[in-house]
């Protein structure tokens, strides 16, 4: 009886393993079909601009952006948006899989800055990125209140060191949320450099980066959950004299406050909640700000229904899905 029971248990385990293997094969097949759908597409945008989508990272010149950690949603964590231009990288959100993707891909430039949209656990699992040799020093991070303390606690709990040093700038909604800046020497991690507590400027936004080629601003999307949106804009390059612009908003965004900030943006990157309703909201918001194109992250494995739903609400055909190992390029050249 014991032998028979043992055989039955082993048989049941084998069947479950086989079922899981079959599911993984189906997921990979669906993902390959999705790649075939979106790879090597080009959208002509108003103003003579083009949005190119290709699996060949070097095929087009211009402002490049890619997604790391999206390809098996919902089995993997939130995506990371990486914008690359003029020798700098801007990384928006850092899920668990981003570390692995950066290790296997040549995305990084000499300067990298990290931006976090919210304190969602899927967005802030970035400790691996602080390891030596992953990001060029110094590591500069912007995000909502609580980010600085979270990184300190995690590094201390893991007895981790950051030889290249790091600094965290927190975005505060008002003075009441300030927690003493927590800059005293006894609270700071031993490898931490002083960061700033940034309050909203007069137009309810946070100017974060501004130099000869790049401009990044942030604004509050949802006060209850301390969620931020970001706009990256070129301030003048050889390829794009008019300056390309990319806006990133999360699924936690409230509809009204951020619309004027991202008006007429070239690309709206919108996280959705893996539903047709989420895609409809993304399409509505892209239309409200008169975006020239829409890229959705967090879709299902094929995304065809979400695509059609977003196109219907947006009223434009320039809608695409985020994908691992696919590069999006904005330029003025067809």
TrEMBL record:
Domain of life: Eukaryota
InterPro entries: RibonucZ/Hydroxyglut_hydro (IPR036866)
One Gene Ontology molecular-function label: 3'-tRNA processing endoribonuclease activity
GO cellular component terms, A-Z: nucleus
PANTHER family: ZINC PHOSPHODIESTERASE ELAC PROTEIN 1
UniProt name for this protein: Metallo-beta-lactamase domain-containing protein
């Amino acid at each position: 009886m014991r032998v028979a029971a043992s055989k039955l248990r082993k048989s049941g385990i084998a069947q479950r393993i086989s079922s899981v293997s079959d599911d993984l094969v189906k997921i990979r097949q669906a993902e390959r079909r999705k790649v075939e759908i979106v790879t090597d597409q080009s959208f002509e945008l108003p103003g003579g601009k083009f949005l190119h989508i290709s699996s060949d990272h070097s095929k087009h010149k211009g402002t490049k952006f890619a997604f790391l950690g999206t390809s098996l949603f919902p089995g993997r964590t939130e995506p990371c948006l990486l914008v690359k231009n003029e020798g700098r990288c801007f990384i928006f959100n850092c899920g668990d899989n981003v570390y692995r993707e950066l290790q296997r891909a040549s995305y990084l430039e000499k300067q990298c800055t990290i931006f976090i949209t919210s304190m969602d656990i899927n967005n802030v699992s970035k400790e691996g990125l602080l390891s030596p040799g992953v990001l060029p020093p110094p590591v500069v991070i912007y995000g909502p209140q609580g980010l600085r303390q979270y990184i300190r606690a995690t590094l201390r709990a893991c007895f981790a060191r950051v030889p290249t040093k790091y600094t965290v700038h927190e975005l505060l909604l008002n003075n009441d949320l300030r927690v003493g800046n927590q800059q005293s020497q006894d609270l700071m991690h031993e490898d931490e450099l002083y960061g700033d507590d940034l309050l909203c400027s007069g137009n309810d936004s946070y100017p974060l980066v501004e130099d000869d080629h790049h401009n990044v601003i942030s604004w509050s999307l949802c006060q209850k959950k301390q969620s931020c949106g970001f706009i990256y804009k070129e301030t003048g390059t050889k390829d794009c004299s008019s300056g390309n612009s990319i806006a990133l908003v999360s699924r936690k965004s409230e509809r009204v406050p951020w619309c004027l900030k991202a008006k007429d943006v070239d690309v709206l990157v919108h996280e959705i909640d893996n539903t047709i309703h989420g895609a409809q909201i993304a399409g509505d918001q892209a239309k409200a700000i008169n975006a020239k194109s829409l890229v959705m992250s967090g879709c299902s494995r094929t995304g065809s229904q979400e695509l059609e739903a977003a196109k219907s609400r947006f009223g434009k055909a320039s809608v695409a899905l985020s994908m691992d190992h696919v590069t999006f390029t904005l330029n003025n050249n067809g």
